[in-house]
Amino acid sequence: MNSTDTLRRAGVILCALLTLPSAMISGTPGERPSFAQIFKNAEPRLTRPLPTVTGWADDAHYLEARRPPAVPRPATVLVDAASGSEQPGPDLQEFASVLGTDIEPGSHVTSVPSLGVYIYNSSNDLFCLDTRARQRTRLTSGHEKEQTPIISPDGKHVAFTREHDLFSVEIATGRETRYTSDGAALIYNGWAAWLYYEEILGRASQYRAFWWSPDSRSIAFYRFDESLVPEFPIFVADGVHGSIEHTRYPKAGDPNPRVRIGIAAVGSATVVWADLDETRDQYFGPVSWTPDSKAVFIQWMNRQQDSLVVFGVDPRKGTATRVLIEHQTSWVDWFESIHFLDDNTGFIVQSDRNGWPHLYLHSMSGALRTQLTDGPWAVTGVEAIDQVNRTVFFTARKEASTRTDLYSVRLDGKKLRRLTFGEYTHTVKVSPRGSFFTTQYSSVSEPPRLALLRGDGTLLRELGTSRTDAFDTYELALPSMTTISTPDGYALPAVITRPFDFDPSQRYPVLISVYGGPNAGSVFDGWKSMGGQWLAREGVIQLSVDHRGSGHFGKAGAALMHRKLGTWEMYDYLATVAWLRAQPWVDSTRICITGGSYGGYVTALALTAGAGYFTHGIAEYSVTDWQLYDSHYTERYMDTPAENPEGYREASVMTHAHKYHGVMRLVHGTSDDNVHMQNTIQLVDTLEDMNKEFELMLYPGGRHGWGGAKAIHLRTDTYRFYYEHLIRKPFPEDLFKTLDVASMRRRP
């Protein structure tokens, strides 16, 4: 089916109309929250922070951070889960005099707390604090900066990169070992190329591309060669003459970085290179050492991203042996983690190979031993493995695709049980062996609470609630979950917030918030914030909807997007608007859509390909043509432009710009290194040539999102847009002038 037919169908035959529940009002009808309460969490506060559980010290004790006024400064308390008894936890502030005035005690970058060893990066050099010896030691000295330092598991060495080469230093002696010497402007050892940082290793890696073995004797690392990757210039307008920020960024179809895998023997300059051809057009993914340190598992993917191979590499010889192979006709996803059994007898991966993300136990040679979970629902992650009782604790969206719960299952795939409770979304922290867990749980209409449970799901005690006494004394317009049916039978999950004093005989404007990326749903039955209360006060219906490819319908739904980005999103969002327009309480002349990044793409497409349905939109840092985005993300769904020229043409906002109608505001940061401002500029160029009227707001120096004063400006200007085009009354300038950077951090 071509996209023209798709868009036409979305506006014609609709399934039976859905009746939305009445507006949910919390507590006794009374005073409504003020601007200051909503945006600045002013007194009387309607919500408050929950206790901060930072993690588990061991299987029986969790760590809780205490802050003023309970203690004079942030401090950590060690809590016995079973009894609730407390004792002081580690407090690095007591070592302030040891560290000196140039190092803040809590600013360590890597540590082994059980050994009392903490590493700091100060003034471009590394320092070690030994809390047992109460001693500070300088580990490096020089003008070059040590980057991404990571301490070895045994606490004896620190590995780091310096000017794109890999090093380690022995803490006890200060002896430094250099493993590579060819680091250069376009050669990175242990430091990730941008594409890998953004799309494969993740931003949490902070560009680190090396991994310690469990026995602390080896370091696996990636060597990147970016000499073939095209350079993309980012103009910086600062100063008199400005400057250019040069980045290596492969667009769809461009040459990618070449990658080699090295294994360094700690303490010597010996590096063994994996027997994998770096000249192939390929990707390498996350790295996992086996528990016995005798092999390092490397994930490999072809350029087409429809085949995934796990190689086991011998760190002594570099020989690579195939362990596991997956292939799908659309695309395969990386294993975010490979979970090894401690006895080195097998490993668990999460894969959607059979249509839904589930857990599979393989032998160390790759043979499938057991499919641990199965059914039309999605596993979302492994939280802990009890090796003694042969039990896996994992999160999944099983009871509903919009809610997350904790479950356990034995390693033979039997005795699957739900451990959390109620119709809530649960965010859990599980002790190392699963004897206990904490859960922060909420729904769209119920603020978060925190509870402690045993590993069998027995409630031990409630630890806190974010709901204050004042919450029940105020009149609140709270969201509710619902579904919207498409003509071809999909029940799209949605969250709707209707205004105060909702009157079905009146017509209201609608604000639809989207993201819309493949397998990246944003509609979940969990608490967001109080922010929606203001628009509810001002008479705006707020709606979020996920389409069929968002993950709620398994891989079958997501795979429909293969080679057709934009098509099914528009089909489902236009069906949503067609449903809205059929309601007597919706003003069809005021239907606004907004989103950022992929959501910006959907928004821009909605005002062009979807013109006539959507009337207004704010598209932030948007992709406008997939030829302009990076190779790994784009080609996973679209293949290359050479392989799928029609798909790229149809997915481009510029292709549909001639249909643009309504009011669209384009927003972009000028230094966005992810979705380049080039995307917005090319759309601006097209719209101007067509003599179309639109709005544009740029944020100088802004990356892919921004904070500080410019974040305040963006929020204020966004609400100004809503007042002008949706609410249609004067913008309360004086109220919004009271917002500051602090208010952005304290969202209730």
Structural features, described:
There is one protein chain. With 748 residues, this protein is of the alpha+beta class. The strands form eleven sheets. Strands 38-39-41-40-42-43-44-45 form an eight-stranded mixed beta sheet, with helices on both faces. Strands 14, 15, 16, 19 and 20 form a five-stranded antiparallel beta sheet that branches. The protein is globular. The two termini are 45 Å apart.
Give a short summary of the structure.
It contains 14 helices and 45 strands. By secondary structure, the protein is α+β, with helices and mostly antiparallel strands. A hairpin with a 5-residue loop joins strand 38 and strand 39.
Q: Which percent bin holds the helix content?
A: 10-25%
Note the gap between the termini.
Answer: 45 Å
Q: In what order do the strands lie side by side in the largest sheet?
A: 38-39-41-40-42-43-44-45
Q: Major sheet: size, sense and barrel closure?
A: 8 strands, mixed
Radius of gyration: 27 Å
- Please, what is the average pLDDT? 93
Can you count the helices?
A: 14
The low-pLDDT segments are 1-28
